[in-house]
Specification:
The chain is mostly helical and 85 residues long. It has one domain (3-75): 3-Layer(aba) Sandwich (Glutaredoxin). Helix content is 36%, strand content 7%. It has helices at 3-7, 10-21, 63-76; strands at 51-53, 56-58. A two-stranded antiparallel sheet has the order 1-2. A hairpin with a 2-residue loop joins strand 1 and strand 2 (56-58). Helix 2 (10-21) packs across helix 3. The longest helix has 14 residues, at 63-76. The radius of gyration is 13 Å and the shape is globular. The model has no long low-confidence stretch (mean pLDDT 92). The chain binds FE2/S2 (inorganic) cluster. The site of FE2/S2 (inorganic) cluster has 11 residues, from helix 1.
Length: 85
């Protein structure tokens, strides 16, 4: 992660994402809805920490906002959390 996001708590956001999604960096959820990757910088440092889901950028992310953000995408998906192919 980039410096600006790091100093604003990106590590805590990442830890919360790992916990809520049940995956580590480089892995994908069983339903294939989420994968987890880190990047050095997205070029929007003033908005950090930033979480990108699909084409959507979520700036000023906090650990407390992770759960509601993930839930929003789970609701949109026709796939269920534990669905397997
Ligand atoms: S450090 Fe996060 S967008 Fe630049």
């Amino acid at each position: 992660m980039g410096t600006a996001c790091h100093v604003r708590g990106a590590a805590r956001v990442l830890d919360r994402l790992k916990m809520d999604l049940g995956i580590d960096v480089g892995e994908m959820t069983k339903d294939r809805l989420f994968s987890l990757e880190t990047v050095n910088c997205l070029g929007s440092c003033a908005l950090g920490p930033i979480v990108v889901i699909g084409d959507d950028y979520h700036g000023q992310m906090t650990p407390a906002r992770v759960e509601s953000t993930v839930k929003k995408y789970r609701k949109k998906s026709p796939r269920k959390k534990d669905e397997k192919d």
